[in-house]
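Dear colleague,

Thank you for sharing your sequence with our group. We've completed the structure prediction you requested, and as agreed, I am returning the results in plain text so they can be pasted directly into your records. Please verify that the sequence below matches your submission; if there's any discrepancy, let me know and we will rerun it promptly.
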Amino acid sequence: SPPHQVQAILELLQERAKVQDDVADIVSIQTTAIDYWMKHQSNLMDTVRTIASDPDDTLQVSTQAELLKESYDAATSVTDILDSMEDPSPHHYVATLKTWANTCEMAHTMRMTKMGIVIGIPQRTQHILSQEPDPSVESYNQVIKAWAYSSEYLRGTMAEQVFQNIKYPNGESFRMIVRAHAWSKEKRSAFQATGHFMRMMRLLEIGSQDMEPKSMDDYHVLCRAWTHAGDKNAPSKVYTVLEIMNMAYRKGLTPLRPDTQCYRDALITMSRRHNVADVGDLADETLKEMKENVVYPDTECYRAAILAWKHVAMGRDNPYPEHAISRAQDLLQEMVEAYHRTTVVTVRAMTEDYNNVLEALSLSKNPKATDRARKLFKELKDNVASFGGPDPLTYRYMIEIWYNSRSADKLNRAMALIAELKTNVDTNELWKQSRSSRQNIVDAFTAFVRVCGTAGSSKKKDLQDRTRIMTMALRSVEELKELGLSADSGMYTALIEACDHLLPQNTPERQSLLENIFRRACEEGHVDPGLLEQFHLTASAYLYAKLVVAQSTQMEDIKVVPESWTRNVQGFREGKKVMPLSIHGTFTFTRAAAEYRTRKLRRRTNQKMLQGGRLK
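Please find the predicted structure tokens below.
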């Protein structure tokens, strides 16, 4: 190839210069060779950036790997030249480190940071840096850049150690260390990145122009980091970041200000926090600020805000969720109005957004909740082409809303929804193929069984009517089978609850039905802690002793139910086996499970902490 032909010519000139003992010519040739390889690598990076910026220009993976291999070869050639030099200058060290850092950046752009030739590059740059007598800031920056664009374990921490050695970091130093932390996804990576960003903005405010953000990408990287932060204070922190960005713009320190992507990431961060009381108010403040700055929210912004308010309504410390539920409805209405108001569609309420609001409404105690839910449900059905139409999750939430209702007609309403759901399942193959849709259909039938249980207790009805409702609930299991689905632990638990609410206590019919339901759950392997606890509360002491205690076995001083009873229970597993379930309704962590966990940790496939390249 032409690069290697040029390299061969340069090597030939270098040999002639050695014969003539001309040190100046040798250094000049070596510098020319390094500059050539850097130019060649720069051309490769331009090609990669062009491909990345054009979604229609897709090269095969093999072609991308060839480009990356060429960049790696260029870095290797420059390193070989550096090793052959007797007294390399700072320019030579920086150029060599830059070629390796650029290779990492290219791999990052092509999402190939896990390739074998890329792993270990940051460690290699640190080795080269250690050989430089008096490293410059630019040398340190290139090493931090290599860590930032790699996929090495704890790359944020490793880059931080390099950064701490810089006496006077410049703007590029801060930009690279922010990226290193933001992309590392370590536990406090977003906090670390924000700390460096705030320091950079303070230096900019006191007159260091080098600290000015170069592009919106500097803002995007930081805001995106907060979407992965697992701290409950993340919403307030990311809002503070937005305030710092806006303050810098208002003071004239930078022409950049938060755009839609920044606000979107901030709202997504807020939407991912549960049990944070003020996260809904923060979402409202963020939307208000967007409109004041003439930055128009898009679909993701509204969706995240609705999610934030839904989580506020679902919070365990929120005894009165009505305000949060109302705000979620208001935001959905804003989405619908924005969709009909503009010709260019940037906001469109979809099934997911309606489902989020309906889930919030399922928590409401307001008598008008059912009317509001019915209005949303009708709106969704009438606009299938625009909004997507209802899915199994929609039906589940609608039935759950009727479950909380005190309406005397709620059983008939729930029956109509179940009938409509069955019709749609028969005609929609996608619902049958999707695992999540299948589970939502089962959950919808479970909600219907719970409606049956509460419908019979709303008034003092005769035994015949209660028995009819109980029969209707039991028929749901067979209807599920007709759809190619089967009941799960939740549905059997709901059946036991319905039996408790509908049938009189201490009657043979009640005890016989409870026994049949429990035996069927045992045969199908769906006995979980919730079901066992509900059965203990509902069944007589004699029946519980007969069906549970008598069938239990001793395991490490604890009586546990047969393993076959829990074989299909989701979660609570160590390996492929479900943990033993005690007769008191708790899963037991046994010595065998502890030994399995120890063996699992010792496996080479799980020793991710040791992954990372080594110098050969």
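Summary note from our side: The longest strand covers residues 553-555.

Kind regards,
the structure core
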